Amino acid sequence: MNSFVINDEVKNALANNQPVVALESTLISHGLPKTDSLRVARLAEAAIRASGAIPATIAVSRGKVLVGLSDLELDHFANTDNNWKLSTDNIATAIVQEASGGTTVSATMICAHLAGIHVFATGGIGGVHHGWQSSLDISSDLTQLSRTPVTVVCSGAKSILDLPATVEKLETLGVPIIGLATKQLPAFFSQESGLVLRQTAVDVEQAAKIITTRRSLRLVGGEILAVPVPRNAALPWTSVQEWVSKASAEANKKQLTGSLVTPFILQRLRELSDDQTLNANIALIENNASIAGHLAIELILNT
Prior knowledge:
Elements: E1 4-6, H1 8-15, E2 20-23, H2 26-31, H3 34-51, E3 54-61, E4 64-67, H4 71-78, E5 84-86, H5 91-96, E6 101-103, H6 105-115, E7 119-121, H7 132-135, H8 140-145, E8 151-154, H9 163-173, E9 177-180, E10 199-201, H10 204-216, E11 223-226, H11 237-253, H12 261-272, H13 276-301
Parallel strand pairs: 1-4, 2-3, 2-7, 5-6, 7-8, 8-11, 9-10, 9-11
Antiparallel strand pairs: 3-4, 3-6
Helix pairs in contact: 3-4, 3-13, 10-13, 11-12
């Protein structure tokens, strides 16, 4: 496919069975304030390199899927306006119409798998939104996880979501959530959500063995390696819930709907927490990238 471009560093690493970790790009285009997005993207790449693996940030630029961005391409992408938010449903359209966009969890998984990358680091996945009973607002990330054999290293689902419903949906889809040295689902900004996990790995080495065994059993789909936010950046879950409740009420009062809701709530969380949520987000992204690098190494050792 001419529209699929793997950069030389990533291509050589994959050809030589070296560890590679995929990174999404909606973090840059939609997930963080413009003043922080490029810096955090570089922090994530640096954390992967420090672990001994190769980073492969994935994005679509002018109709081409880029697997691995040079520093110049990263800078250009961060400063491009009108980037699409690309998911399973619209990535093909973006390619045909030669658009540019940031890849969400679902789109990044698709591209990583096509490139032969088995590990993907992100902050948190999408999931089931509050009020799903009437809106059916459920992220395609969950369905893609059930289809694509890529391990997503993250700090659970984003805090603004209905976490119990998200866990139930993942269980229904057969997607395992493996807690890394934790028995509770991490709640993104918080280390614990009160939701007990059915599976725990004591360390990255054991997590790699579980994933390798899943592949040998030919089980369909990927898995989540759930990593708590570092303790020094973690926020109390009760405080986060209060902020989310307040921000959600404000969004309802403004009659915001669809894609306008999440950015508004995230911005209000940052304001209500005096930037604590932003700092926690940055810390967990960097930490997850590092752990994903170590996991990629362990998976190679297990093959």
